[in-house]
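Appendix B. Chain record.
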Amino acid sequence: MTTKFVLLVLALVASAACLERIHFQRRTFTREEYNFEKIAKHLRAKHDRAYVPTSEDAYNEGLSDYSNAQYYGPIHIGTPSQKFIVLFDTGSSNLWVPCSNCPLGNIACQMHNKFNCKKSTTCTATGATFEIAYGTGSMKGVVDNDIVCFGNDNTMCTDKTQGLACAESEPGITFVGAKFDGIFGMGWDRISVNNISQPMDQIFANSALCPNQLFAFWLNRDGNDMANGGEITLCDTDPNHYTGDIAWEPLLSEDYWRINLGGVSIDGESYTTGNTDSIVDTGTSLLTGPSSIIKKIQKKIGATPLLNGEYEIACSKIPTLPNITFSLGGKDFVLRGQDYILQLANGNGQTTCLSGFMGLDIQAPGPLWILGDVFIGRFYSVFDHGNRRVGLATSKNSA
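Structure tokens predicted for this chain:
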């Protein structure tokens, strides 16, 4: 065995050691689980700086879209570690999980894993109050400091000064049936509530642990592979999950993962005029854009309007639907009918097909497109913190 070969093996081992994989849990959704009106309210509260929630925005409406997002997996908090399933959300910037002292009447909290600061030797209860206003103030709690670790082997961790919110009050029925315990925000610190740094900041600061300051999402769209929902990789990408080169688009601002959308077209016809902002958001299931443009797209694909911004299409038409092209990073990214149509089971055993597009007029910093799971499911998505950019490539299981 040559010295050169030994060094190559050692380099590969070292590289693999710096890559953390978190496998996503997979679920399917029913027609009853989608409510476009509630999703719109959630997204406005999340992304529209000019939006002021009204008194009709009940607490149980604010987080409805999180029920339809699919990116959730394990983290561990404290010493000894307490395990939680969290939704990894690039459209927010705070980590929160249910708190052990939440009231018995809070059903959502009681049905999920709860963090107990007193049972962790590394936890510090700061006593600071915390509130995230998803709609009209959906989650309230206190701030604790403790170690946060990713995955199941606890090799990639923060130190004990990491801040997190311990939720003492959760909204209505939204989280009662949620498959995850809390939310792990992966946006930029500028939009963090209470100016709490998100855990990835500490991971990125350790170059020995994380030589590449990025994370990447792959969502498995293979309906026959129910055991694997996809995965997030920390500190490196995984070429096994995408084909071709990664196209890079620089960030427009360090708040959300906000990049320039060069254009949207169908059959060579442009549906946008000039560049516009877009946010790559793993915390929403849909793809939204200005209402006037989305209406034209719905008409083009032959979708029929229902209530509250929903559009239905005959499932038999999916194979013949036109491709829709998004220009990002100097490259065209094409969504097919099977990508942008949601096939949802009804209670009667039949399937309803809804358009995955929704019109949403964001005032500030709008006009704005939100590229949620409808888009990310088709394209491997890289969030490069170190180089302030987003990378996209065709996911391998959807090529």
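Further analysis of this model is presented in Appendix C.
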